[in-house]
Amino acid sequence: MRPFAPHAMPAARPHIEPRRVPTADSVVVKELYLSLQGESSHAGMLCGFIRLTGCHLRCTYCDSEFAFHGGSRMKIPEVVEKALAWNTPTVEVTGGEPLLQPGVYPLMEALLDAGLKVLLETSGAIDVRLVPPAVHKIVDMKTPSSGECDRNDYRNLTSMNANDELKIVIGSRVDYEWARALVTEHQLGKKPYSVLFSTIFDKLHPRQLAEWIIEDRLPVRFQLQMHKYLWDPNERGV
């Protein structure tokens, strides 16, 4: 059988370019809450979450459709004040797709200036080169079963630094072969950032993915989405 390769996918659609607007002083926030970080190398750590409204993707396995619309516009100092009130050193900016909002860049800078460790969860469909280097970027490249694989912005593979992590969520053997080809073709095991493989919850048993990784000796980190096992995914603020 011919190896599955990322370039075998349909041609990518035009990318949304990141936009920094120096005068942006607010963001639309869907929810703010304190919980435990459920994934990445920070899994299990106390973390405050700033979820911004809006996303241009419609992944088949999306678990945050509620964030597509609604929310409240908040000034950046107000958001930082809320984050500091959690009294935890780590916060994550997530969505939706937070990089759609120009105000996210000054927000991340303000959170860093306040002395916080800042994580960013982003879809992989917008280049992260304009994100402050001190931010820990978690970039979620979309697999074929997401229905949005052609939206991946492969510039991210060279825009990320040693602070960052590339996340690939896998729901089938086809997804796994696509991800394996991506790791091999782009020599991701030699990049300064980590590569994380996890399963789509209730679509692929984690043990199956673990066995594939072991069999192929892939230079990736296997992870579980801890929050999916701890809390009902329909609950807000966890």
TrEMBL record:
EC number: 4.3.99.3
Cofactor note: Binds 1 S-adenosyl-L-methionine per subunit. Binds 1 [4Fe-4S] cluster. The cluster is coordinated with 3 cysteines and an exchangeable S-adenosyl-L-methionine.
Keywords assigned by UniProt, alphabetized: 4Fe-4S, Iron, Iron-sulfur, Lyase, Magnesium, Metal-binding, Queuosine biosynthesis, S-adenosyl-L-methionine
Superkingdom: Bacteria
SUPFAM superfamilies linked to this entry: Radical SAM enzymes (SSF102114)
Pfam families: Radical_SAM (PF04055)
Family annotation (CDD domains): Radical_SAM
Leading EC class: lyase
Annotated protein name in UniProt: 7-carboxy-7-deazaguanine synthase
PROSITE patterns named in the record: RADICAL_SAM (PS51918)
Subunit structure: Homodimer.
Function: Catalyzes the complex heterocyclic radical-mediated conversion of 6-carboxy-5,6,7,8-tetrahydropterin (CPH4) to 7-carboxy-7-deazaguanine (CDG), a step common to the biosynthetic pathways of all 7-deazapurine-containing compounds.
Residues covered by the Radical SAM core domain: 42-233
Family, as annotated: Belongs to the radical SAM superfamily. 7-carboxy-7-deazaguanine synthase family.
Gene name tied to this protein: ygcF
Chain residues that bind Mg(2+): 64
Catalytic activity field: 6-carboxy-5,6,7,8-tetrahydropterin + H(+) = 7-carboxy-7-carbaguanine + NH4(+)
Pathway info: Purine metabolism; 7-cyano-7-deazaguanine biosynthesis
Annotated binding of substrate, by residue: 36-38, 51, 94
